[in-house]
Amino acid sequence: QVQLVESGGGLVQAGGSLRLSCAASGRTSGNVVMAWFRQAPGKEREFVGGIRWTASSTLYTDSVRGRFSISRDNAKNTVYLQMNSLKPEDTAVYYCAARRIPLIVTTLNYDYWGQGTQVTVSS
User: Fold this and answer.
1) How far, CA to CA in Å, does 14 sit from each of 3, 37, 82?
2) Cα separations (Å) of 1 from 19, 22, 27, 93, 110?
3) Which residues of 85-106 are buried (b: 16+ CB within 10 A; e: fewer)?
C-alpha cells in the first residue's frame, strides 16, 4: 500500500505563488508516475500535470503550462507542484496521485490518491 500526503495549500492573492508537496510512503518503489489533479466546487476532478519518476518527463494541461511546474526529490520520495502567476480560476482542492504503469495519463486511472489540500486564489 502507498500513502500520499499533500501539504502547502493556502490562501494567496492573484499573481502570487505557492508550492505544494506530496510525500509518498509505504511501497513506493513501484510508483512510476506521480500526478497532480484539482477539483473546484461543482466541477469534475481534472488533471493538472504529471511526472515520470525515473525519466523526469512531464505533461501539463494547457491552462497551467508555463505557470506550473512539477519536480521530484527521489531521496525524499516527494513530488512538488510549483504554482506561479496564480489566478482565481486555479482555486480548487489539489490532489496528488500515483500509478504503477509508466505512462502519464490525464484520466483518473491512478492507483493511489492523497486527501487533498485547498488552494484559494483571491482576486
Assistant:
1) 32, 20, 15
2) 26, 16, 6, 23, 13
3) ebeeebbbbbbbbbbeeeebee
pLDDT digits (tens, 9 = 90+) for 61-84: 999 999 999 999 988 999 999 999
C-alpha cell at 63: 491552462
Instruction: Please indicate whether residue 53 or residue 112 has the higher confidence score (pLDDT).
Output: 112
Chain centroid offset of residue 4 CA: 11
| SS3 of residue 63 by DSSP | coil
The single residue listed with the C-alpha cell 492523497 is 114
Phi/psi at 74 (5° precision): -60, -40
Grid look-up 509505504 returns 26
